[in-house]
Write a structure and sequence with these properties.
heterodimer, A: 116 residues, mainly beta, 10 strands, B: 113 residues, 6-stranded mixed sheet, 4-stranded antiparallel sheet
Chain lengths: 116, 113
């Protein structure tokens, strides 16, 4: 079956612009996660959605970052007023069941964001 | 808060050599432990995971890892590496109070043919 998909695969933007990154999780997966992978910080958790519950936003680095998940499926990560330090690969993952800590998270290919 | 340390940032081996990648974590409670691999140009995929039972877990492609609770360690091993094992390897933990993964810094493995 289809895995986690993300779009765009690459995004180049100018400092100060807003960007939207999209994630399509595996069908039927109730948990969805966003992480980012950067040279300086490694792999960092950003935000977690579980079903219709309020998201866990504890990893978002600033209020310029936000995310939503519509209809319990597709998710969009929005970065407002992008800064050069936002340049990274943004990864989405999904898992089945109810997001227990033991669940395997399946990762998408990522969106490489470059802020000029 | 939990944290994960991977001591080896870069490892270079010849084919057929044995591999051991170190992973240590800090967290006072029950943890779930994972090793993920990222092959060149591909996305992260699970190698193996541990959450209970036999502390020696076997994963795909001949990899195994041993959970040693007293040492807060979850080292990854393979008896004989192949050129196709060239990749970046990430150790990660989660706990049952939160579902996000905390990753180590990764180890880049290069296997010379």
């Amino acid at each position: 079956g289809a895995g986690v998909s993300q779009s765009p695969s690459n995004k180049v933007t100018e400092k100060g612009k807003d960007v939207e990154l999209r994630c399509d999780p595996i069908s039927g997966h109730t948990a969805l996660y966003w992480y980012r992978q950067s040279l300086g910080q490694g792999l960092e958790f950003l935000i977690y959605f579980q079903g219709n519950s309020a998201p866990d936003k504890s990893g978002l680095p600033s209020d310029r970052f936000s995310a939503e998940r519509t209809g319990g499926s597709v998710s969009t990560l929005t970065i407002q007023r992008t800064q050069q330090e936002d340049s990274a690969v943004y990864l989405c993952a999904s898992s089945s069941s109810w997001g227990r800590g033991t669940d395997t998270q399946y990762f998408g290919p990522g969106t490489r964001l470059t802020v000029l | 808060a939990q944290s994960v340390s991977q001591h080896n940032h870069h490892v270079i081996l010849s084919e057929a050599a044995s591999l051991e990648l170190g992973c240590n974590y800090s967290y006072g409670g029950t943890v779930n432990l994972f090793w993920y691999v990222q092959y060149p140009g591909q996305h992260l995929q699970l190698l193996l995971k541990y959450f209970s039972g036999d502390p020696l877990v076997k994963g795909i492609k001949g990899f195994e890892a041993e959970f040693i609770k007293s040492k807060f360690s979850f080292n990854l091993r393979k008896p004989s590496v192949q050129w196709s094992d060239t990749a970046e390897y990430f150790c990660a933990v989660s706990n049952n109070a939160g579902n996000m993964l905390t990753f180590g810094g990764g180890t880049r493995l290069m296997v010379k043919p």
